[in-house]
Backbone:
């Protein structure tokens, strides 16, 4: 892709609760999967520091869920997180802000799990809450894909990609091993250079 094409891409700016960030109308996972392997910390292009952008976007999502607590009493500082997942009606692409999909109080553990490097204390609090208070949300393979405490619905599936993002981001928070290993490759270094993501 030619360099001038990169600058033509639109970067949508959102504002919520006084916080501004670059985002999209996609669920929270867009901030997670794009950074599971690539380490954007301390790098930026001429538009943004995308790691810090995801820190803000994740905090915005947490605040959005707290606001939803007025409608769905299960959402709190101890229990938040909505991203594309199973539901008792099938697969749903939901999240926000702005509110997307038929939000109904369902909690998606990988929303917090994939956010561990961005909001460590807040995300760990959620995962500990799920593990300690919602036994049916934990299986021998890890967290179920989703559950709804208000309706007592618990998914029977544990989905690899969502367990995977939780594991990758947990290790990135813990030691940085995934980031450090991947970023040593010539391909990753060349990709960062060509994307204009330079250390600062």
Residues:
């Amino acid at each position: 892709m030619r360099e001038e094409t990169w600058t033509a891409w639109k970067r949508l700016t959102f504002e919520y609760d006084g916080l501004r960030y670059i985002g999209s109308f996609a669920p929270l996972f867009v901030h997670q999967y794009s950074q599971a392997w690539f380490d954007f910390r301390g790098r930026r292009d001429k538009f943004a520091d995308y790691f810090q952008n995801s820190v803000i976007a994740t905090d915005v999502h947490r605040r959005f869920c707290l606001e939803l607590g007025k409608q769905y009493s299960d959402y709190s500082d101890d229990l938040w997180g909505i991203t594309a997942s199973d539901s008792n009606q099938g697969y749903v692409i939901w999240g926000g802000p702005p509110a997307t999909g038929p939000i109904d109080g369902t909690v998606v553990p990988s929303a917090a799990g994939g956010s561990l490097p961005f909001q460590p204390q807040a995300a760990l609090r959620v995962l500990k809450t799920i593990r300690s208070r919602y036994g049916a949300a934990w299986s021998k393979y890890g967290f179920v894909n989703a559950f709804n405490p208000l309706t007592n619905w618990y998914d029977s599936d544990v989905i690899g990609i969502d367990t995977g993002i939780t594991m990758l981001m947990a290790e990135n928070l813990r030691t940085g091993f995934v980031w450090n290993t991947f970023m040593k490759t010539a391909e990753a270094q060349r990709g960062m250079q060509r994307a204009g993501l330079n250390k600062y």
In short: Residues 1-6 have pLDDT under 50 and may be disordered. Strands lie at 12-16, 19-23, 43-44, 138-139, 142-143, 147-148, 153-154, 198-199. The domain at 12-189 is CATH 1.50.10.140 (Glycosyltransferase).
